[in-house]
Amino acid sequence: MPRPTAATIHTDALRHNLAQVRQRAPRSRVMAVVKADGYGHGLERVARALSGADAFGVAALSDAERLRAAGLSQPIVLLSGFDAADDIPQLRQLNVETVVHHGTQLNMLEQASAVGPIRCWLKIDTGMHRLGFAPEEVRDAYARLLAMPAVDPDVVLMNHFASSDEFDNRQTRHQLQVFADATAGLPGARSLANSAAVLGWPDAHADWVRPGGALYGISVVGGTTGGDFGLRPAMTLETRLIAVNRIRKGERIGYSATWECPEDMPVGVAAIGYGDGYPRHVPAGTPVLIGSAQAQIIGRVSMDLMTIDLRGHPAAQPGDRVVLWGEGLPVEAVASAAGTIGYEPVCSITRRVRFIEA
Ligand SMILES: *Cc1c(COP(=O)(O)O)cnc(C)c1O
Q1: Has residue 1 got a pLDDT over 80?
Q2: Which atom belonging to ligand 1 lies closest to the Cα atom of 211?
């Protein structure tokens, strides 16, 4: 028997979520962001399911290589840009578009040969202060790009939001204004919106939206889940109970004996732990599903196993299905117990977990 720990990827949910994004941003083209191995769902499988997207966004040239090897011919955009002159011939060979966010990249492109112009997305730092040209540098950078034989004159203008997950946020309104001012009068398509801006900032939809999380059914908007926006979880992480033990009142469960049984009680042991990517530092009380009923983790999550309070589940027995997140238990609930956002746990699944495509 293979280990029962498995991540099922629901390709119909991916397609449903893409359709939801299109409904919310009907005048925009959609770049499906598939960086970090498709947010942990599997790059090729996600891209095939989302082949109706207008482009794919990746963070590494190696991901673009994998998409081309898988036969995907859509436009691909390298979101963090290239970082060495050697990357330029590869951009051409793979027909990959690149973000340009720094003067060193302009210098490398100026040195590059003219054959096969490269499509560039000029990134403007409108206030997040991670990547991008300062607003006052934009016109000069734009003019330099247009003058380069190595660059396609159809340059896209983009920025990235720091706080679009708050739908009434002053910084986001400010970033929108800085972007409008910095790009006023320049021709070219515009792209501003990540998932949260697709959901909550219609003024930012522009020509291209760039959702990642929403396509996987995950919301980063505080206190919400993807389901609140009509999205469906694209991953179900599950395992099985491999033991049900009766433990006496006053006995303590697991490493460092952090949880004490308040009465004689059944404790379930599930075959999943931080070695599978489940967050180790979730507190007791973090929810799981036994079948379709909610139960709670008790004690420390260990490498291969976790322990579950089965007092409300008298019929539970070894072999029963345990769902860690998915339909019926949003990953956002586990993430918030772990002090993080839903993106992190899905990106953290390890290689020993079986992936099943459904
Ligand atoms: C990751 C990323 C996105 C997607 O962000 P989500 O919150 O997952 O929608 C969009 N644009 C850029 C530049 C990114 O790096």
Answers
A1: no
A2: 9
Assigned token pair, 146: 């247009």
Is 40 near ligand 1, meaning CB less than 6 Å away? Answer: no
Fold of the domain built from segment(s) 235-357: Lyase, Ornithine Decarboxylase; Chain A, domain 1 (2.40.37)
Amino acid, single-letter form, for residue 331: V
Domain parsing of the chain, residue ranges: 11-221, 235-357
Domain covering 11-221 in this structure, CATH number: 3.20.20.10
User: E strands within 127-225?
Assistant: 156-158, 190-191, 208-209
Active site residue 255: yes
Active site residue 343: no
Q: What is the pLDDT of residue 129?
A: 97
Distance (Å) of CA 282 to CA 301, 308, 327, 332, 334: 8, 13, 20, 13, 8
Atom of ligand 1 nearest to the CA of 343: 8
- pLDDT for the residue numbered 113: 84
> Residue 116: what pLDDT?
84
Token look-up 């694209």 returns 234
